[in-house]
Amino acid sequence: MDNRVYEVQAEYFKALSHPLRIRIVHYLKEGERCVCKIVPYLKEEQSNVSRHLAALKRAGILSSRKEGVSVYYRVQDENVYEILDLVLDSMKKAVREKAVILS
Amino acid sequence: MDNRVYEVQAEYFKALSHPLRIRIVHYLKEGERCVCKIVPYLKEEQSNVSRHLAALKRAGILSSRKEGVSVYYRVQDENVYEILDLVLDSMKKAVREKAVILS
DNA sequence: TGCTTATATGATTAAATGCTCATATATCAT
DNA sequence: ATGATATATGAGCATTTAATCATATAAGCA
Predict the structure, then answer these.
(1) How close B31 gets to chain A, by Cα (Å)?
(2) Which CATH number fits domain B3-76: 1.10.10.10, 1.10.340.30, 3.55.40.20, 1.20.1200.10?
(3) Which one of A28, A42, A43, B5 is at 20 to 30 Å from B28 when CA atoms are compared?
(4) Tell me, what's the pLDDT at A35?
(5) Number of Cβ pairs closer than 8 Å across A and B?
(6) Share of chain B above pLDDT 70, in %
(7) Is A19 a residue whose pLDDT tops 90?
(8) How far away is chain B from the Cα of A62, in angstroms, using its nearest Cα?
(9) Strand partners for A73
C-alpha cells in the first residue's frame, strides 16, 4: 500500500483526537447548528471553538454555510458516528476483559 | 454524557493519528511480530519505533510478550481494523463526492 | 455613514509530540 | 565474568498543537 494512504488516514484520526472536537461532532448529531449556539454549549472561548470547527471542516468531517452574519455547521461525513461508536465499543470491551482478568 | 468519555475516546484516536503507527498496526495484521522484524520493515530508528509501539500498547491497541531477548507485539484490539477500514471508506466516499461536484 | 454583533484570524505563549543520540537493562552465548 | 545483541528509556532539540487576547472582516441595523 502506498504509504501516503497512512498519512491521510492519520489526518482523519488527528481531527478526532481532541475531546472538544468529539463533543462538537456529537452536538451536531441532530442537525446543523449556528456557531452562536455551539459556543455557549461548549462553554469555551469563541476563538478556540472557531479553530476546532475549522479543523473538523478541514478534515471533511463538517461543512458550513453562512446565513447573514451567522455560520451554521453540520456533519458532512455521517460515517463519523459509526467510527465513534466503534471506538467506544472497542474500549468498553477492553475494560470488560481487564475486569475479568482482575476478578 | 460524562465529558470524560470524550477524553478517553480522544486518546484512542490520538494513538492512531500518526502514519507510522497505522503502518505498524497493518504490519501486525497477520499475527505477532518480533521488534527485530518490525524495525527493519519500517526502516526507522529503533528507538523511535520502540516509542510508537509503546504508544499503541498504552492505548490498548497492541500487547506484547517477551521471549528471551526478543519482544513480540501483536494486535490486542482486533476492532482496530474495522475502524481503519471505516475511516478509509469514509474518505474515499468524500473524494468521490468531490469528484462529482468538480465534473 | 456609523454602530453593533457574529465569526475568523494573527500573534504570543505554554505544553505536547516526535525524532535522534547516547545509554541503560536484560538475556544469551562463550 | 565478559561480550554481544535486543529493546527500552533519558536528555535535548525542533516542530506542532492548543489556548488566549486582541483585532480584522463581514453583515445587518439605526
Answers:
(1) 18
(2) 1.10.10.10
(3) B5
(4) 98
(5) 99
(6) 100
(7) yes
(8) 11
(9) A33, A64
Q: Is B53 helix (H, G, I), strand (E, B) or coil?
A: helix
Query: Cell numbers 489526518 correspond to what residue?
Result: A11
Looking up cell 503502518, which residue turns up? B23
Strand order in the sheet with B62-67: B33-34, B70-75, B62-67
Higher-confidence position of B44 and B101: B44
Domain boundaries, chain B: 3-76
Interface predicted TM-score (ipTM): 0.94
Distance A11 CA to D19 C1' (A): 21
Q: Which nucleotides in chain D lie less than 7 Å from some protein C-beta?
A: 5-10, 17-23, 26-28
CA distances B55 to A59, B12, B22, B39, B52, Å, are: 23, 10, 12, 15, 5
Q: Is it the case that residue B50 has pLDDT exceeding 90? A: yes
